[in-house]
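BUG: 3D viewer hangs when loading the predicted structure for this chain

Environment: internal workstation, default settings.
Expected: structure renders.
Actual: progress bar stalls at 90%.

Input used:
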Amino acid sequence: QVQLVESGGGLVQFGGSLRLSCVVTGASVNDHNMHWYRQRPGQSREFVASMTAVGDSYYIDPVKWRFTIVRDNAKNTLHLNMNNLKSEDTALYYCHMPDFSAWGQGTQVTISS
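C-alpha cells produced before the viewer hung:
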C-alpha cells in the first residue's frame, strides 16, 4: 500500500520561505510521476507542480521561479521549496502520486501580511 505523509507547513511572513516534504512508502519516488496540489480557502484543489520519473519538472505560472521541486531518492522523499511567499499561497498543500491514486493528508501553509 502506497502512503504519502506531508510535513513542513506553518505560519510564515509575506516574502518568507518554507520547505514542504512528502515521505513516500510502498513505492519509489524516482519511478513515478509526483505532483503537488493545494487547496486555497473557499476554492477547489488545484495542481501546483510536478516532477516526472525522469526528473522533468513543471510549475503553474503563479509559482514559477518561486517554487522548486526537489526529489531525494535516498530518503524516498519529495520536497517543495517555496520562496518569496505571497498571501495567495495560503492553502492546504497535498502530495499526490497519480499512478496509485494516492494522496497525503495535507500540510497547512499560512502566509501573514
